[in-house]
Queue: 2 jobs
Job 1
Amino acid sequence: MSVSVQAEDFDANQELDKLTAGRTDIGALVSFTGLVRDSHQGVDISDMTLEYYPGMTEKALADIVAQAQSRWPIQGVRVIHRYGRLLPGERIVFVAVTASHRGEAFLACEFIMDYLKTSAPFWKKEGTAEGGQWVDARESDEQARQRWS
Amino acid sequence: MTVQVLYFAALREALGCAGEEIALPSEVDTVGQLRQYLATREPSWQPLAAMKNLRMAINQGMASPDARVRDGDEVAFFPPVTGG
């Protein structure tokens, strides 16, 4: 289990290789990568700045991973989330899960993302023609989280 | 009793303050009461009272308004999160 909160970009392929290197007991490897889009609800986005809470953000992510591990028989988990100023097309977040079988790998990966979206302390500010706009939390994200209860 | 208070994101911008060390008045027991105390010091602190769905954390764990605040605690106030 490994969680990183960092400004630097990451290489998703390298991260996947690290999770399976030297292992012959893994049957499934599932990953998600979140990227910055160039528009949001019809408004052009020039950049996105992510703020976080040093200390609490890492704890919250580790707690989410621990919950996934207690719910499903998964093997490895890797979570990376960037902060700072990002441009459209750049990678923001990466979640990868290994398991014996695909069922738990898919479920754990989706669970981790749904919980990360609603409880990890990050805040996004989008650059628009009207200036910087803080993104509002979405009801749909909260509903996605509640599916898991 | 002193606590460290941190503000994040849109709240931090509205207040013009990222954090402060506060000597807690004896009548402030909970983080909800702390919010009220901080927000009513001066008109410029009004956004702390006005922010909808404000979240609170004590020692880097989410807290409800009736959670107790103690000497040496780190308290944070912030809008609902939008990561991922």
Note: Chain B touches chain A through 17 residues (CB under 8 Å).
Job 2
Amino acid sequence: MTPITIIPIAALAVVLLWFYSTYVSIVRKRNKVKESLSGIDVQLKKRHDLIPNILEIAKKFMEHEKGLLEAVTRLRTQAISLEQATDAKSVTERLQTEGLLQEQMGKLMVSVESYPELKSNQNMVQAQQSYNEVEEQLAAARRYYNSSVRVLDDSIDIFPVSMVASMVGVQKFPYFEATAEDKKEVNASDHL
Amino acid sequence: MDTVAQDNLPEFVEREPYEQGFTKFYNDSIKPQLGGLESSRMLLRAKHNKRLMICIPLAVLLFCAGIYLESLSSGGDAILFKMCIFIGFLLFGWAYSPVFKYKSQVKNQILPIICSFFGNLTYFEHGTQPKTEVEKAGIFPKYSGMQSEDLIRGTYEGVALEMQELKLTRGSGKNKKNVFKGVIFIAEFNKKFAGRTYIKKDMGKFSNWLESLTNDLEKVELEDPEFEEMFEVFSTNQIEARFILTTSFMERIKRLSELKVNSGDSRSTSASEQFAEIIANQGFSSYIKKIYGVRCSFVENKMYISINMSYNLFEASSINKTLLDIEDIHIFLAQMNSFFEIIKILKLNEKITLQA
């Protein structure tokens, strides 16, 4: 083999090696995003499991909040149906549904304050404590998910890695963002 | 022994906010003992000086004798010289034993009172930290020998805590070296966790990468760029690490660098005075960052903090310095308060989340 033949072969080998290592890196980052999504799933499942118990206790006292209780039930059912979503579009819809569910649960928890008997009910207190714990874990899981998405986005946004990403079909994932309701300013007089 | 007259004993002047209310403790528990301690100091100082007057000439004699005997002997390992040096060390140990006794008296009579002022806390001069706790913390280098002193244990504002001065060594004989000297601080955390999370000082990309090769932990990248600049976080559980390190908790850990302790007027030349001066000018965590930095870990339901320090805390001033200016008491209060400030800043005394 002469140098004239060795050099192009070596160059091709380097390019192939780079391509393979980039491909492995992208796939690892994508799998990290999926892993982080499953972390959210675990917490969402816990939340879904807690909600019926909370609704059962609340129903006995909150006769005038029927609309709110029904909204929570409907959103919970919708969220459970989207639990198996893995593609980017379905994940977006799922995250939106979970955001709405969280919003309605927030309203429910605030409404509990208006019912002294319910507020002091031992079962309700325990249910609220469990729910708060799950929400904190969920917030942590979402942060991890967003962090994984950022790492993936950082790599597939930059050329030439973006070229490899598009060749192997790795797409961006959506960030978990606050809902429009969450972003609105809170007016204390609305709650007093 | 003659006790210093009660009329000659100083009054305690509260100089700092954390000293508020200490006057009563001082008047009730420390002042009655101060006269006796001061008299004891004078006696022990006299004993120490007398022994030094015997020791120094003897030591010089031994040194010369060692050299002379060695020159006469045919062996090449200087055994006789080493024996003379060893005897010299024993002599100095005997000469300085009144100094150690004095320092121990001050510690054992004053520190327990200061501890009880801050909370339901107990002081043990020679209490030992169980090896299991040091190993569970996971923030100390590998070691083969451990020495500890000045253990404080109990509750402060409802938080169960322990803190102790620790010295870890590795190797033996000529190869023995210090791998850690400082304080271990253990506090019950207000959340329970299943995994292990570690916060270490950011030592730069290359050092961080090297460290990551030696363990099975994952690097946790957090949203706060300032926090990321200062610390590196590793964990067995990415979600749990973020569960612990909420954005507000990260802010609190950063706030440790703003912690300031005013030690008041510093006039002595003791090592504790140097500490006080640095703290007054630069703040507690600036001091510890200046030396080596802080490491934290979260294991089971406890937070472990290791703080490297080059010298001892809670040490009485020189035996030649009078106790009656009560500067030592101000310094002990300042040093102890610095550690309890950690609990307030990190809000470990607030139950943020109730467990499911």
Note: Chain A touches chain B through 16 residues (CB under 8 Å).
